[in-house]
Amino acid sequence: MLLSALSSALSLFGFATSPPAQDLFQPHVANTPQPLTFQLRHLHGVMDDSNIIFHDVPQQFSAASTHSVTTRRTKVPRPKLQADFHRARRRARTEGILETLDWDEDEVVAPDATNRETLLELAKMTNNAYLEPGDDGWYNLTDNWNKSSPFGWEPDADGFRGHIFVSSDESTVVLSIKGTSAGVLGGGGPTVRKDKFNDNLLFSCCCARVDWSWTTVCDCYGGGWKCDQDCLEQSLVEESLFYTIGTNLYNNVTYLYPNANIWLVGHSLGGALAGLLGVTFGVPVVAFEAPGEKMASRRLHLPSPPSTMHITHVYHTADVIAMGACNGVMSSCAIAGYAMESRCHLGVSSVYDTMTKLNWSSDVRTHRIGVVIDQLLSKDWEEGLPVPKAEPEDDCVECYSWEYGKFKNSTTGSLHARSGCPRS
């Protein structure tokens, strides 16, 4: 019913839901992909009843918000059947059984994450996910992205938000996901509460248990440095969790553009969600200044694909959130009520060493996407090096002080324990 309504609503505004002329998965596509042009077409978001809402952008804003990016061909692993992927998740969570999935390796057109101009355009898309067209701070895009739509910008919408950019030939769709809007001095807008809830559930070691004075986001604390693993994983399957909403949104987008190539981009929380959805659906991801999402992927029991090289993280060393250094009771994150304790990222990371090369100080204020756009991506990183080399994060460890197992949700002891990080 929802999909039919969305399809009918979009058709009223002249946005076709039929397949585009070119299928990027067919072998006749040239080996050297051409640059793509995108334009804002839809805003997206979630109402209190968890329904996903699309809102069409007025033509005058859509025409003024276009992006051009260079591309490359890449191979992405995809589960042969999404039903098998979600069944494996469910059995791992409820029965402790790890299934071996069959994966396809598809060749797709992806953004060229080694190209500075491409990263700059995608970063502008992630910035715009925080805004409505015409707002102060909105970045106009190049002529290539000629259709776009926002989602989640109704006055009462308090959750998952962003924009959908569509290439001029409808061959490629970019889903840009909004990150955290921090509620400083009562500001931040209606999404602040749910943004903070998702941050504290996805990126804390145990339900945002920082010290005795904190109100935790789930009842899984087992006393001392102990956390109930089953309780923690069950807390991540609630319908209000943004990952679940993101999977529904992705399915709606593929329904509207059934033969389009999908890319995911996002900043901060939005970048981490993009990474989780990139593992789920096997699509290219570029995430900016995101907290580590590898721990959340394990707790969500996302089956591990043969490779996650299709996920690229871009961040710098002065950003305490992306570096996993904004923790402890005296950190700026904790003072603001955020338990940002994760640090390990999926895929590969292109890390700008701004502390060594630019003498930046470690500061949460450098986390803003505007800093990345205006002070990092507006010029080449070094002569002959547009972008730092993207590499896997080997030997990354997080939450090493905690024990995860089956614990009573109290401070008086445990039933049985297992030390180390959460299981895969």
UniProtKB/TrEMBL annotation:
Species per Swiss-Prot/TrEMBL record: Tulasnella calospora MUT 4182
Keywords, alphabetical: Autophagy, Endosome, Glycoprotein, Hydrolase, Lipid degradation, Lipid metabolism, Membrane, Signal, Signal-anchor, Transmembrane, Transmembrane helix
GO-annotated biological processes: multivesicular body membrane disassembly; neutral lipid catabolic process; phosphatidylserine catabolic process; piecemeal microautophagy of the nucleus
Reactions catalysed: a triacylglycerol + H2O = a diacylglycerol + a fatty acid + H(+)
Quaternary state and interactors: Binds to both phosphatidylinositol (PI) and phosphatidylinositol 3,5-bisphosphate (PIP2).
InterPro entries: AB_hydrolase_fold, ATG15_Lipase, Fungal_lipase-type
Entry protein name: triacylglycerol lipase
Alphabetical list of Gene3D superfamilies matching this protein: alpha/beta hydrolase
Functional summary from the UniProt entry: Lipase which is essential for lysis of subvacuolar cytoplasm to vacuole targeted bodies and intravacuolar autophagic bodies. Involved in the lysis of intravacuolar multivesicular body (MVB) vesicles. The intravacuolar membrane disintegration by ATG15 is critical to life span extension.
Domain of life: Eukaryota
